[in-house]
Amino acid sequence: MRTITAVLCLLAIATGPALAQSCPGNPDAIGTSRTITVDPSVLPQIGTMQYETSLPLNDHEVVITFDDGPLPPYTGRILDTLAANCVKVDYFLVGEMAKTYPALVRRIYNSGHVIGTHSLDHPLTFNHMKVERIADEVDGGIAAVQAAAGDPRAVAPFFRVPGLLHNKTVDGFLASKSLTVWSADEVADDWHHGITAKQIVKLAISRIEAKNHRGVLLLHDIHPATAMALPMLLKELKARGYHIVQAVPAGERIASVPELPAKTHEAGGWPRVVKTSVEHSAKVRVARHHHRRHHKPATDSADAAIEKAAASRKKAQTADSGQSWFNLWR
Ligand SMILES: [Zn+2]
Question: Residue 180 in contact with residue 38, Cβ under 8 Å?
Fold first, then answer.
């Protein structure tokens, strides 16, 4: 870490000091330096991991995106971190998750973030689906998130394909709907089982640096390791002279949507320890999302059942099975 800090200082000198950002109560915050307006007719595809085009970012500019939520308590924790650092990001919400946690959806919007969508139920089969089924998932996801947000104008025409499993049919459909399809420039493997917060930060930074010191970073707000990594990541980005940019849709942004009182399960605690560890808790959550079509708050007995299932799955995995069920989740 000492070496990294030393390198950081050099880089900070080489690239000049970060622009002063106004963030009340936190002079060390990285803040958000600017927005880029994305019009689907001008920029239909974003992300060099899969497409030829990405956002027109300058040197040392990063856009942070979060997929798969909302899910308490991690989404709330991440929103707290973003607010404390005056960082605005882009979310890609899953319809069924939004239906279950509408208060979180509204909190995301009212915190100044942009909300795109990520299908109704996150099937990892987009590249095998007929166009009618693609339409159901895309349109259903948008409708669910719009309803949860309480105002359709709160949802941007931004879509990310679950698992990034696109093909020509998917891309053609999204273009016909005037939706910008978002891939990414970098991922940080934060959906991998057992990855630590430090590893997420290291991967994110090294991949951003390798991609010409800029990019659209894909993270997930449903994992505890991601929530724990975010404060470190923002600090590291600032130390290296990076700036945060937010992509926004064209047109005027409505000021806010009506708030909903957070239910107990949405407010959540931190960390929500199910039994053995925070990581285990995450796995249980993901198992629930991954294997159940409806994401109702689980009862204690359901928690126990899912825990048992997750434990047996873990047992069945071997250390070198690269393609575990968990790795499919992104
Ligand atoms: Zn996803």
Answer: yes
User: How far is ligand 1, taken at its centre, from the CA of residue 330, in Å?
Assistant: 4
The answer, yes or no, to whether the previous bond of 73 is cis (omega within 30 of 0) is yes
The verdict on whether omega for the bond into residue 27 sits within 30 degrees of 0, i.e. cis, is no
Distance CA 297, CA 323 (A): 29
Q: What angle, 0 to 180 degrees and rounded to 10, lies between the N-to-C axes of helices 278-291 and 224-239?
A: 110
Distance 68 CA to ligand 1 centre (A): 5
The DSSP bridge pattern shows strands 61-67 and 90-93 to be parallel
305 domain-assigned: no
Domain for residue 300, yes or no?
no
Q: What is the mean pLDDT of residues 306-321?
A: 34
pTM of the model as a whole? 0.78
66 C-alpha to center of ligand 1: Å?
9
Question: How high is the pLDDT of residue 248?
Answer: 98
What tens digit of pLDDT does each residue of 190-204 get?
A: 999 999 999 999 999
70 CA to middle of ligand 1, Å?
Answer: 11
Phi, psi of 313, rounded to the nearest 5 degrees: -65, -40
**Token duo for residue 22:** 């106004």
Could you tell me the distance, in angstroms and rounded to a whole number, from the CA of residue 205 to the centre of ligand 1? 21
Q: How many domains does the chain have?
A: 1
Written as one letter, the residue type at 20 is A
Domain that holds residue 162: 29-263
Q: Domain holding 202: CATH number? A: 3.20.20.370
Tell me the C-alpha distance between 219 and 199, whole Å.
13
Structure tokens at 142: 């948008």
Which residue type, as a one-letter code, is found at position 321? Answer: S
Residues having C-beta closer than 5 Å to ion ligand 1: 67-68, 162
Question: How far is the CA of 210 from the CAs of 60, 186, 204, 215, in angstroms?
Answer: 12, 9, 10, 10
- Taking the centre of ligand 1 as the mean of its atom positions, its distance from the CA of residue 85, in whole angstroms, is 25
Per-residue pLDDT tens for 113-122?
999 999 999 9
